[in-house]
Amino acid sequence: MKIKELVKKLEEVGWYYSYQRGSHMYFKHKDKPNKVPVPNHKGDIPKGTLNAILKQAGIK
């Protein structure tokens, strides 16, 4: 999955861009206290990293 696809998926379920530090974007949700870091690198996100991000976001 590409970064743009993941960002779109996060935004569809209520996550919004908060800030960027280095090569990682951080997303927040109005109903959840945690932040979800998303690496902003070229190419596809590795499967394990993608699964961890989706789990932190409560999507998977």
TrEMBL record:
InterPro entries annotated for this entry?
HicA_mRNA_interferase, HicA_sf
Cross-referenced Gene3D superfamilies, in alphabetical order? Hypothetical protein (3.30.920.30)
What superkingdom heads the lineage? Answer: Bacteria
Instruction: Print the keywords alphabetically.
Output: Endonuclease, Hydrolase, Nuclease, RNA-binding, Stress response, Toxin-antitoxin system
Gene Ontology MF terms: endonuclease activity; hydrolase activity; mRNA binding
Family recorded in the similarity comment: Belongs to the HicA mRNA interferase family.
Q: What is this protein called?
A: Addiction module toxin, HicA family
